[in-house]
Amino acid sequence: MSDEVKRQVQANFSKNKEAYVTSSTHKNQGDLDLINEWLQPDQKWTVLDIATGGGHVAKALSPLVGSVFATDLTKDMLQNTATHLRTLPNIHFVVADAEALPFLDESFDAVTCRIAPHHFPSPETFITEVERVLKPGGFFLMIDNVAPQDENLDHFYNTFEKMRDKSHVRALKVSEWKQLLCGAGLSIEQELTRKKTLPFPDWVKRTTDNDQERLNVECYFQNADEKAFSYFSIKKEKDRIQSFSIDEWMVKSMKEA
């Protein structure tokens, strides 16, 4: 099952490699500035950016650290990103599985992963690998979409994400992430939960294959109950879905020295 999911991830991101470079959601500068503010990177640092996608985090960190290793499971995606970032010589691109990182223990001063873990079949293995490659006292900064604590809202959210993107596995709840981090010996230093508003037309088009798939997702939104409509701030204009909001969690944790 895990291998099948990863093949779907590769197919999806190969097909949409340019969309992730240009996506307004993924290149959000406020997000990137906050990463630098929280990490306070040092010019001597070696940083790992897991599932780099369009390379936005790697690009933001590049001038502030010694070197960045930008990894992704999808070679086509990484090749495209490397072309876009070819003027930044301290970024090294490596095809790598987030759940089986090809690096020695205690190699990195910081590890980042942004808007990607909901694609990973085994979040527990991912967190174990992050802890392994971090130096003692090193930082792990993660940003990802998270599911609401309410079971019905969790189901609604993960269902429409899977409808729209076959490579979506599951967005975890914040409580589930905290359990994994603490279980791996990564102590939480800083956290922030916030609402992220997404433009529906751009969001749904990025990963669907045809108009029928897009329509199916929109119908699912249209049929949401009052609780879901309110929680996800679903906005309509002329009976078409225009935008909605989801929960995003940003966390900085530290490996015990």
From TrEMBL:
Biological processes annotated in GO: methylation
Keyword annotations of the record: Methyltransferase, Transferase
Family matches, as InterPro entries: Methyltransf_11, SAM-dependent_MTases_sf
Residue span(s) of domain Methyltransferase type: 48-141
GO molecular function, one term: S-adenosylmethionine-dependent methyltransferase activity
Pfam families per UniProt: Methyltransf_11
Domain of life, source organism: Bacteria
Name assigned to this protein: SAM-dependent methyltransferase
Organism from which the protein derives: Halobacillus mangrovi
